[in-house]
Amino acid sequence: MSWSRRRLTATALLALGGCGFEPVYARRDAEAPLQSDLAAIELPDARSELTFKVRTAVLDQLNPTRASVPTRFRLDWQLARRISSLIIQLDGVVTRRDYALAATYALIDLGENAVVDRGRVERIASFNVTRDPYNDLVAREDAERRAAQALAVALRQQLTAYFEREAV
Questions:
Q1: Could you tell me the CA-to-CA distances from 139 to 97, 130, 166 in Å, in that order?
Q2: Which one has a higher pLDDT value, 76 or 66?
Q3: How is residue 45 annotated by DSSP?
Q4: CA distances from 5 to 11, 16, 19, 66 (A)
Q5: Element (H, E) at 35
Q6: Measuring CA to CA, which residue among 128, 145, 121, 160 is closest to residue 53?
Q7: N or C: which end of the chain has fewer CB within 10 A?
Q8: Which residues are CB-neighbours of 52 under 8 A, at least 6 positions away?
């Protein structure tokens, strides 16, 4: 990195620090209220293989240490998936597909029994299509797993933003 780029980066960081900017993930205290709020979210039961994958990934994001905290919120969601052709050869053979996974969610405060935040997140994972049924199945399932993990990260980001706004 050149000297001028380093100086520009340092100046930008100082300017951000001066305006009160604080990265969400920069918290260092062990019992941060944000972690407690995220761990206090109850997730819907898994009713299918897809909801099980998403639920597990979201639980890993919201409460990775499996801390035991009283439930204060419930996260309701509706999942939708779509598989679409991404690359189609001249002879009409599909060789790559997109696996899109979307969640429309509502965060409910159980104390007030009211929706306090709602939104929608969507993530896409692509996979190759061969003419081997087993390989195609494994590739699709891997894309589903990757999309579920990415969706869980996006949900955590949205919920973190909500709790950060409420803390101010």
A1: 10, 9, 41
A2: 76
A3: P
A4: 10, 16, 21, 42
A5: helix 33-39
A6: 145
A7: C
A8: 46
Per-domain boundaries in the chain? 32-167
Separation between Cα atoms, residue 66 and residue 127, nearest integer Å: 32
32-167: CATH architecture:
2-Layer Sandwich (3.30)
CB 95 within 8 A of CB 126: no
Tokens of 122: 């969507």
Distances in whole angstroms, Cα of residue 106 to Cα of each of 54, 55, 96, 136: 15, 15, 33, 34
Residue type, 58: V
Direct distance between the N- and C-terminal alpha carbons of the chain, in angstroms, rounded to an integer? 37
Integer angstrom CA distances of residue 157 from 34, 38, 82, 87, 152: 12, 11, 23, 31, 9
Residue 151 region, left (φ>0) first, then alpha (ψ -120 to 50), else beta? alpha
130: its two tokens: 């061969």
List pLDDT tens digits, range 16-54.
555 555 555 554 453 467 888 999 999 989 899 999 999
